[in-house]
Amino acid sequence: NSMTNTATPFTWKDVKSEDLFKGKRVVVFALPGAFTPTCSSTHLPGYEKHYDEIKKCGVDEVYCLSVNDAFVMRQWGLAQGCEEEKTSTENPLNPGNFKKVKLLPDGACLFTRGMGMSCVWDSERGFGERSWRYSVVINDMKVEKIFVEAGQVNQNSGPDPFEVSDAGTMLGYLQSAKK
């Protein structure tokens, strides 16, 4: 019976920061939520568009992190038109199974809290605990450069700033760091 098929179309396993970042130079950009307006219209599409250019700057991988579960992140990636990666020998951990930007669920908000980027927009958006918008270059488990949106991490912040965590700012930094 096809209705009882419980196969998961992506890798289902707990992943530690070391698994993704140790011995690598990666870009992580974090956003408040899958399917939200700025995240869907600009933030993720910008990194998808500039993925190849970012990789050419000595970056091993690009991750999009959000305080959502793996199922939501996968459906968002599909809705965004991200190309699926059916198998990956280069990155067997490949969260979300997409070829370019890898969607990284932080369902319990553990990584987000560890970065000091947890915030709550409950009175304005009903979001509960989410990630403040930022982007970071992690080089072998160490922060090389971080771009945090204005206001640092505001609780119940009226605006949702999007000025420095975008792909263009990150690409500019990576290109200047190459010189």
Describe what you observe in this structure.
InterPro entries: PRX5-like, Redoxin, Thioredoxin-like_sf, Thioredoxin_domain. Belongs to the peroxiredoxin family. Prx5 subfamily. This is Thioredoxin domain-containing protein. Residues 1-179 form the Thioredoxin domain. The protein has 179 residues and is of the alpha/beta class. The chain has a single domain (21-178), classed as Glutaredoxin (3-Layer(aba) Sandwich), CATH 3.40.30.10. The chain contains 6 helices and 7 strands; from the N terminus they run H-E-H-H-E-H-E-H-E-E-E-E-H. The termini are far apart. The model is unreliable at 1-6 (pLDDT under 50).
List the helices and strands and how they pair.
Blueprint: H1 17-21, E1 25-31, H2 37-49, H3 51-55, E2 61-66, H4 70-79, E3 102-105, H5 110-114, E4 118-120, E5 129-131, E6 134-139, E7 142-148, H6 167-178
Parallel strand pairs: 1-2, 2-3
Antiparallel strand pairs: 1-6, 4-5, 6-7
